[in-house]
């Protein structure tokens, strides 16, 4: 069911108090996919919202109005998207801080601090009780096997669609064998990590081979975001695998 307007939702993703155009279309599409994946039907309020705004790219809805038709989980994602998280680079740097063992996951204990750090980067302060609530919502939304761990790609849904470069890389992930071969090919000096220049060469080749998924004009953004996972400019195999490998190594 819908919930009353949260006091913290005041700006649109673009900062104008509204969600419109492609931004609104992307949100509607993701909302439908998330409900379907969870085995849930759209509520009557949500169905009316989709019917009204889902077919036209010139729709426009106020964030306050939108918040009233969304249940807690979707409201939570909307809230984070409204916080103007600066970039996917900030997100990746925060991820690296908490995935200190390079496992590709962060556990429930670390999640609360992770969310707090993200909001601080966006210059937002939040009550501890509300942060605890958000942590529980995140686990409920994404921890499908109830192991208390979340993956990078799952947490990246907190980013506005235009900042979530990981969506682009979902379609170009390699199997473990292919990934390892590629890593060894671009690790030209064989020192066990890829530097910025080596990553640049790898990404250029990926963009050329996958023009439908990747836009070479965004190469600098891709590189900057991925290098945020590096250790002092050294991008190790495990970190790059989070982006490019479809299987565990």
From TrEMBL:
GO cellular component: cytosol; dendritic spine; nucleus; terminal bouton
Domain EF-hand: 86-121, 130-165, 174-209
GO MF term list: calcium ion binding; vitamin D binding
SMART domains assigned: EFh
Record's keyword annotation contains Calcium: yes
InterPro entries associated with the record: Calbindin_Ca-bind, EF-hand-dom_pair, EF_Hand_1_Ca_BS, EF_hand_dom
Entry's Gene Ontology BP terms: regulation of long-term synaptic potentiation; regulation of presynaptic cytosolic calcium ion concentration
A Pfam family per the record: EF-hand_1
Protein keywords: Acetylation, Calcium, Metal-binding, Repeat, Vitamin D
Family (UniProt): Belongs to the calbindin family.
Purpose of the protein: Buffers cytosolic calcium. May stimulate a membrane Ca(2+)-ATPase and a 3',5'-cyclic nucleotide phosphodiesterase.
Protein name: Calbindin
């Amino acid at each position: 069911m819908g919930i009353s307007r949260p006091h913290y939702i005041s700006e649109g993703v673009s900062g104008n108090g509204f969600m419109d155009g492609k931004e609104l279309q992307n949100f509607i599409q993701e909302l439908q996919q998330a409900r379907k994946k969870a085995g849930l039907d759209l509520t009557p309020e949500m169905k009316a919202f989709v019917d009204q705004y889902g077919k036209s790219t010139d729709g426009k809805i106020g964030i306050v109005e939108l918040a009233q038709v969304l249940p807690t989980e979707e409201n939570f994602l909307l809230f984070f998207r409204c916080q103007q998280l600066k970039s996917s680079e900030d997100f990746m740097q925060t991820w690296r801080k908490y995935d200190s063992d390079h496992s590709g996951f962060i556990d429930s204990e670390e999640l609360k601090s992770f969310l707090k750090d993200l909001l601080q980067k966006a210059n937002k302060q939040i009550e501890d009780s509300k942060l605890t609530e958000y942590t529980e919502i995140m686990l409920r939304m994404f921890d499908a096997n109830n192991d208390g761990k979340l993956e990078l790609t799952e947490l990246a849904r907190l980013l506005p669609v235009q900042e979530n470069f990981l969506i682009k890389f979902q379609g170009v992930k390699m199997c473990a064998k292919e990934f390892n071969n590629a890593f060894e090919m671009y690790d030209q000096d064989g020192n066990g990590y890829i530097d910025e220049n080596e990553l640049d060469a790898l990404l250029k080749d990926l963009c050329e081979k996958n023009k439908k998924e990747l836009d070479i004009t965004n190469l600098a953004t891709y590189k900057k975001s991925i290098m945020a996972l590096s250790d002092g400019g050294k991008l190790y195999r495990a970190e790059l695998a989070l982006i490019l490998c479809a299987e565990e190594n």
